[in-house]
Design a protein that fits this description.
With about 280 residues, this protein is an all-alpha fold. The chain is built from ten helices and two strands; from the N terminus they run ααββαααααααα. The chain has one domain. About 65% of the residues lie in helices and about 0% in strands. It has a two-stranded antiparallel sheet. A hairpin with a 2-residue loop joins β1 and β2. α3 runs parallel beside α6 and α6 runs antiparallel to α9.
Length: about 280
């Protein structure tokens, strides 16, 4: 009989761990940062969640109270409440994207010591949270409107979605551009950006229907892409009862979305290493 060897066979080498793709790493990082942002935004309390949802609603109700004091039951051919909800909430989404994304990189500087975490990940994660909050607020508003007898059914859902997507892209692009362009030592410029949101708000048509303005002022306001988007959004949501402006269209918002996104990405690519070093 053959003599069995006293030497043990060496264990088979372990299979190498497959490397994760860059997209998989970025997706995991954005997910983790989104959870962190959401926890910070809610402050770990129910009161924080109520305030996150209630702040835009209080803003809309405040403007409704102003119009009610002026005895304005309809604006632009539609109910005052519907007009304000369809203009205030999209504008508040745009403002939140610009102003909150502008501070996203500074708020996460300590995390950039990890090689997997890039500055743009912090911006994307905060944008995800803002869009989630907007979805919750919009759902709460539509449910409340239906409960009080103002059921809203979009007349052209695809156009409504397209307008919201373009608004979110422009807001994200400007937020990324400002986050990179106003990074230290230029962070004092952020006060100017915040003040600059007021003329954007006034000229967007969120409060005043463009159709009621004089021709000259209306033409000036139509240089604002938000004026086009809010008018298209209201027309798609409310249908023919809304008095839309014939000069609005998709060309200017699409051009703004592409131009701002390309400019933001180019600026980020030029300054990304400096951003990681703080």
């Amino acid at each position: 009989m053959p003599v069995q060897s006293l030497h043990h066979q060496p264990p088979a080498p372990a299979a190498p761990t497959p490397r994760r793709s860059g997209w998989a790493v970025a997706r995991s990082v954005v997910f983790a940062l989104s959870l962190r942002e959401l926890k910070t935004r809610l402050d770990g309390r129910w009161g924080g969640a109520v305030w996150v949802v209630g702040e835009p609603l209080l803003n809309t109700l405040g403007m409704l109270a102003v119009y009610s004091a002026m005895r304005a039951n309809t604006i632009g051919g539609v109910d005052t409440l519907l007009f304000l909800v369809s203009g205030q909430l999209p504008y508040l989404l745009f403002r939140s994207l610009v102003l909150r994304l502008m501070e996203a990189i500074d708020a996460n500087l300590g995390l950039f010591a990890y090689r997997q975490v890039q500055p743009v990940d912090a911006v994307v994660a905060r944008a995800v949270v803002e869009l989630l909050v907007f979805s919750v607020v919009m759902g709460a508003c539509l449910s409340g409107l239906g409960w009080i007898g103002h059921a809203v059914r979009p007349h052209r859902p695809l156009e409504l979605c397209a307008a919201l997507v373009l608004l979110a892209v422009i807001g994200f692009s400007l937020g990324l551009f400002m986050a990179v362009g106003t990074a230290p030592p230029l962070n004092r410029l952020r006060g100017l950006v915040t003040m600059g949101m007021l003329p954007v708000y006034v000229s967007s048509g969120a409060l005043i229907p463009l159709s009621s303005l004089p021709a000259g002022l209306q033409a000036a306001f139509l240089h604002n892409p938000l004026a086009h988007l809010l008018d298209l959004l209201r027309s798609a949501l409310l249908g023919p009862v809304y008095q839309s402006v014939p000069n609005t269209g998709w060309t200017l918002p699409v051009a703004w979305a592409l131009a701002t996104l390309l400019a933001a990405l180019a600026l980020y690519r030029a300054r990304r290493h400096r951003l990681q070093m703080g």
